[in-house]
Sequence to fold (100 residues):
Amino acid sequence: MNKFYKSNWLLVVGVLVLVVAPLVFVRGGEFAGSDDKAQKAISEVQPGYQPWFKPLFEPPSSEVASLLFASQAAVGAGVMGYAIGWYRGRTTPGQKRDEE
Fold:
């Protein structure tokens, strides 16, 4: 078995552990966004605070907000993956790569 093949599977297992561990070990945890926590902290420090402006677009529900957030993350990951692949592909075919 190729050592890079083995290391790729170890990375996949590591990512799965990082994803599943919080769901298993944090029972009844509150998974709130940073905006909600900031709003709560501001209201505790200064109860009469009024925001200076309103958002240009407010999603109609939390599901739509989650969809937009996930779409933003997917587009960002796609752009990063494309850039990494593009830079990696710039090496000439006859040139020896680091991992080979």
